[in-house]
Design brief:
10 helices; 10 strands; alpha/beta; 7-stranded mixed sheet; Rossmann fold
Length: about 300
């Protein structure tokens, strides 16, 4: 599959235009005489059309259909053939003169400890207000897994900031921004918690996040991802294979410490003379924690070009 067609299909999936994406993949499989893939895509197309019919019924069926279609989108991404050997995907570039975007993504599922996400957003906004290099701050709240890719494609951020709960590889939990697992089975997989249509926690694994950014960076020039959530260092490692700078938390981090780090980080980013001075902003975040006399200064971890800083 040539790269232009791959990019078109990825964009269609991100825009939830799954029928168009399926049609193009079916046509490609037919031209390649790939009977196995043609059969796979045909089955997915029939499933998609069945789910479309469900949308005409009760709201419970509507939500079920939307979740099913989101799963079809993920299967399509997995089914995309690799690019030509020896030809790595070209990262997207920011358009000249475009004001870089900081995208704030928030998730606080109903059965998890209440976080001060609105306070964190305000602190970031205030920190960027008098930035030497202007940034545009945008936000999406109560983020669901099926919306994640769409939000990134829509807003095209240079900096993506996730604020919420996280889980370590062995189901680590704790105070602050770790998941409250009471009444839930502790997982064995690292990830961040988004939420489903009912507002309940839905784990998105570090491996899935890595796959997301492997795909998304072909269209969106993401330079930095900040996971302001407990036990997110493992997830940061996966993302760091595809994004130049990634920050995660190595252990549980108190809510106040997470907000303080965010404030210091974006103050540092705002007063950097170059937009690429991420290390200075990272150190500014750590310094802000120390200045406030808070615990957890050792928790934030910076990954640079796939290597732990």
């Amino acid at each position: 599959m040539d790269e232009a067609l791959r990019q078109q299909i990825i964009e269609l999936i991100g825009q939830h235009a799954l029928e168009d994406a399926l049609d193009r993949m079916l046509h490609w499989a037919f031209q390649e005489a790939d009977a196995e893939r043609e059969s796979q895509f045909q089955e997915l197309r029939l499933r998609y059309l069945e789910l479309e019919e469900q949308k005409n019924y009760h709201d419970l069926r509507l939500r079920s259909a939307m979740r099913g279609q989101a799963e079809i989108g993920r299967q399509l991404l997995d089914a995309l053939p690799a690019g030509e050997e020896g030809t790595p995907p070209t990262p997207a570039e920011e358009e000249p003169g475009q004001t870089p975007v900081v995208l704030f993504l928030a998730s606080n599922p109903s059965q998890t400890a209440k976080l001060q996400l609105d306070k964190e957003f305000v602190q970031i906004a205030m920190s960027l207000q008098d930035s030497v290099q202007p940034f545009e701050l945008k936000a999406e709240w109560a983020v669901q897994p099926q919306s994640l890719m769409e939000y990134i494609l829509q807003h095209r951020p240079r900096v993506l900031h996730f604020s919420g709960h996280g889980q370590g590889r062995e189901g680590d939990a704790g105070n602050g921004r770790g998941i409250d697992t009471e009444g839930m089975a502790a997982g064995q997989e690292s990830g961040i918690f988004l939420q489903d249509a009912n507002g309940r926690a839905r784990l998105v694994s570090g491996q899935a996040l890595g796959s997301l950014f492997q795909t998304i960076t072909r269209q969106v020039p993401v330079q930095l991802v900040l996971l302001n959530a407990c036990y997110s260092a493992e997830q940061a490692r996966h993302i760091g294979e595809h994004v130049p700078f990634v920050i995660g938390m190595s252990k549980a981090v108190p809510d106040k410490t997470a907000i303080t780090f965010a404030k210091g980080f974006y103050v540092g980013l705002a007063y950097s003379r170059t937009r690429t001075d991420i290390d200075f902003a990272f150190q500014a975040g750590l310094t802000q924690i120390e200045l406030m006399g808070l615990s957890g200064v050792e928790q934030p971890v910076l990954w640079v070009d796939g290597e732990k800083g």
